[in-house]
Amino acid sequence: MDASTLAAPACLVRPGRPSDAGALAAFAAETFVDTYGRYNEPENLRRHLHAAFGPRQQAAELSDPHVATLLAHVGPALAGYAQVRRSAAPGCVAGAAPVELHRFYVQRRWHGLGVARTLLAEARAAAHAFGGRTLWLKVWERNARAIAFYAKQGLVDVGTADFFLGAERQTDRVLALDLGPPPSEDLSP
Question: Which domains does the chain have, with CATH numbers?
Answer without folding.
Answer: 10-182 (3.40.630.30)
